[in-house]
Design a protein that fits this description.
With about 400 residues, this protein is of the alpha/beta class. Helices cover about 35% and strands about 15% of the residues. The chain has helices spanning about 20-25, 30-40, 45-55, 60-80, 95-110, 120-135, 170-180, 200-205, 210-215, 280-285, 330-345, 375-395; strands spanning about 150-155, 180-185, 190-200, 225-230, 235-240, 240, 245, 255-260, 270-275, 290-295, 295-300, 310, 320, 350-355. A 7-stranded mixed sheet has the order 2-3-1-4-14-5-10, with helices on both faces. Strand 11 (about 295-300) and strand 12 form a beta hairpin. Helix 4 (about 60-80) runs antiparallel to helix 5 (about 95-110). The radius of gyration is 21 Å and the shape is globular.
């Protein structure tokens, strides 16, 4: 039976609420505060709160929200790409200042008490505008003209933060490092990369955040890839994605176990397939981590009720229980993006999912209770992962002879 889903952002009353979300409540821990201070992002929320307090209408408040949200995204991208002040001694490649700053802003917005009337729906709209603008979701722009390839790449927020609140997500760091950049593909072509970051929350995905962000751009791009953190010590090009949510708690500590909820479920397939050139990617020398073509899935075979692992992909008529990328939101974003590709009729568009290695802290810094928020090996691992994703994308964007993705 399907689970009832709520909006991604918990509603706030017109008078404001002092109740922070589960994610926002983690802000007051020592590590997030240190990350904000050592990146110079600790001043953004107080400044935002002061400007917001001076808004005398909903329209002015919305302009303020969008200005600070898009400004936060641009500041994080600029910091990652070496523009402007680093704001502190935290390495520039770090994705965590963006994550924790966004939560500091949403917490201020959630508790804001305007002098004018604001409805619950209005506050939810402002929170959504802040989320989208601070994730780069509404600022994807490609240059006009021919002769330039267009690449769309997505990353994720940090997650499993109750296990270790210091965690960084290399996919989010990659999105910051590559947004608005140019690269040479393996065949020498010039390509422009645009990126966005997504939350690790089941409800946002059910609410259509992936489709809303990607739908306007898939028809104009030459390649798309969703990226997330996967297994230790390896990259995986996920061959098959499954229509199943396995229930692992998200960043709001909510669990969902059900078929992936999409529009027009009557035509929803159990499986979708990558159209990335996995053979070319795995054969190329892209970095120090091995890259695998992962074909394994978990299915309920036709007429059966016991899950079976299939190393070579799903069998006809089976029901999905895990794609190659598992049954969490990394699998789901891959499923949604490739389903959208197919529903838009973009059958020859290369696209799929890349799982990065787990970003690990250095030896002696693995205990979250006593460890520091960063160390040289941690930074080196993240930089190497970013560089290798860039190299993988350069290979994937080169023309492939007679390549077309298999039927779902």
């Amino acid at each position: 039976m399907a689970v009832s889903l709520t909006l991604a952002t918990p509603p706030a009353s017109a008078a404001g609420t002092t109740t922070a979300s589960v994610e926002e409540a983690r802000l007051d821990r020592v590590a997030p505060q240190e990350i904000l201070k050592r990146s110079g992002f600790d001043s953004l929320a107080p400044e935002f709160a002061g400007v917001l307090a001076g808004a005398d209408s909903f329209a002015e408040a919305e302009r303020t929200v969008v200005r600070y949200g898009s400004g936060l995204w641009r500041r994080a991208v600029d910091r990652a790409q070496g523009r402007g002040s680093a704001g502190g001694d935290l390495s520039r490649d770090d994705d965590r200042p963006l994550y924790w700053s966004r939560l500091a802003l949403t917490r201020e917005l959630r508790s804001w008490k305007p002098g004018f009337g604001i409805t619950e729906r209005g506050r939810t709209r402002l929170l959504d505008r802040l989320e989208r603008s601070s994730r780069g979701q509404d600022s994807i722009r490609y240059p006009a003209g021919k002769g330039v390839k267009r690449i769309l790449l997505t990353g994720f927020d940090p997650f499993t933060l109750d296990r270790d609140v210091r965690i960084s997500n290399p996919s989010g760091a990659t999105a910051l490092a590559l947004d608005g950049t140019w690269l040479r593909t393996a065949d020498g072509s010039l390509a422009r990369v645009e990126t966005a970051v997504f939350p690790v929350r089941w409800a946002d995905f059910a609410d259509g955040t992936v489709e809303r962000t990607l739908r306007p751009h898939l028809p104009e791009v030459d390649l798309f890839t969703t990226v997330s953190q996967g297994r230790p010590g390896r990259f995986d090009i996920e061959r098959t994605n499954g229509a199943w949510r396995g229930g692992f708690p998200d960043n709001e500590n909510l669990s969902r176990t059900e078929t992936v909820p999409v529009a027009d479920p009557a035509t929803q397939p159990q499986w979708t397939s990558t159209s990335l050139p996995y053979a070319a990617i795995t054969a190329a020398s892209t970095g120090r981590f091995p890259v695998y073509d992962n074909t394994s899935v978990t299915e309920l075979p036709a007429g059966a009720d016991t899950p079976v692992v299939r190393p070579d992909g799903p069998t006809p008529g089976s029901v999905a229980r895990a794609g190659g990328g598992g049954d969490y939101l990394s699998n789901e974003i891959a499923y949604r993006a490739t389903l959208l590709r197919d529903r838009l009729g973009l059958t020859r568009l290369p696209g799929g999912h890349v799982h990065t290695p787990v970003l690990q802290f250095g030896a002696g810094n693995t205990d979250p209770a006593t460890g520091g928020v960063t160390d040289p090996e941690f930074v080196r691992n993240r930089l190497d992962i970013i560089a290798q994703v860039r190299a993988i994308v350069a290979v994937a964007a080169a023309p492939q002879e007679s390549f077309a993705h298999p039927s779902s």
